[in-house]
Hints:
Elements: E1 34-39, E2 42-43, E3 50-52, E4 55-62, E5 65-75, E6 81-87, E7 90-96, E8 99-107, E9 110-117, E10 123-129, E11 135-139, E12 142-146, E13 150-154, E14 160-164, E15 182-184, E16 188-192, E17 197-201, E18 207-211, E19 221-226, E20 229-234, E21 237-242, E22 248-253, E23 259-265, E24 269-275, E25 285-291, E26 297-303, E27 307-312, E28 317-321, E29 325-329, E30 338-341, E31 347-352, E32 355-360, E33 364-368
Antiparallel strand pairs: 1-33, 2-4, 3-4, 4-5, 5-6, 7-8, 8-9, 9-10, 11-12, 12-13, 13-14, 15-16, 16-17, 17-18, 19-20, 20-21, 21-22, 23-24, 24-25, 25-26, 27-28, 28-29, 29-30, 31-32, 32-33
Amino acid sequence: xxxxxxxxxxxxxxxxxxxxxxxxxxxxxxxxxxxxxxxxxxxxxxxxxxxxxxxxxxxxxxxxxxxxxxxxxxxxxxxxxxxxxxxxxxxxxxxxxxxxxxxxxxxxxxxxxxxxxxxxxxxxxxxxxxxxxxxxxxxxxxxxxxxxxxxxxxxxxxxxxxxxxxxxxxxxxxxxxxxxxxxxxxxxxxxxxxxxxxxxxxxxxxxxxxxxxxxxxxxxxxxxxxxxxxxxxxxxxxxxxxxxxxxxxxxxxxxxxxxxxxxxxxxxxxxxxxxxxxxxxxxxxxxxxxxxxxxxxxxxxxxxxxxxxxxxxxxxxxxxxxxxxxxxxxxxxxxxxxxxxxxxxxxxxxxxxxxxxxxxxxxxxxxxxxxx
Length: 372
């Protein structure tokens, strides 16, 4: 996904709202593949839509006010609104296992993390951590939050298992929020910075391994653990690291001016979304299908507009370009490809299964399935 600089501030009490239902927008042309549409807050670039257990949640701000945020939840199939919560300045949002997690800045170096039941909006717990929670990852019953420190929080009750202010020279500063730089699986949590990647033990936060290459741009995409490999993108380079010890398996460069935007793994290949250049160049972006074994290129798919966002699910890879095009692919066949067009190129992108959720700058949430 594109880099999104973290800019985070103040707090408002979390209050329930009586608003229910789904407001559609008949004045707008429905994109091909539209399942439903709804009124949502103006999107915040830090908080693309997230989904869990048949619920999608869109966060944003009211009338451009950065300090006055909202969370709104919908049934992913019908678009019926399930709940809404007023929020202060959101710093990050994540969803997993029927729970929605939202960070809210309290003071310059601390945030409050609130866990909501995804179906009812009921607050399950609240915890304060010594970081801004602008990047979040969930794995094996643990929520990890970062930006100023890295905290491991039990998802069941909100208790803090451990928190680290710095490890091996990494202070866990997030420059590409919300879902870049931080990832986790059952065994470890991974953080990428300007020097490379470190892995910490899930149990206690101790250092497991480090990858520090001689030449590396700021980590912009990943670390992304898939099976026994951790993939990371910096500038125009994609790197595969051994999950056990961090040793590099291969490194593929896409050249000067390239920028990695996202990864998607399959049984036999890795899809890499890459933004090549900006106007007036006539080459804007590509999806490369790479060999898992050595990173060599197998196929490629080109776009006519800059690739600005990419979301991976177990079912598909969803790509958004700045002309408003949303494209689905799984790497099995690139032609013909499923795609639709929004009325704007200014949108945040989320996905669940094969359904994409595009939250546009005019305050509309589009639920989109791949057009036939």
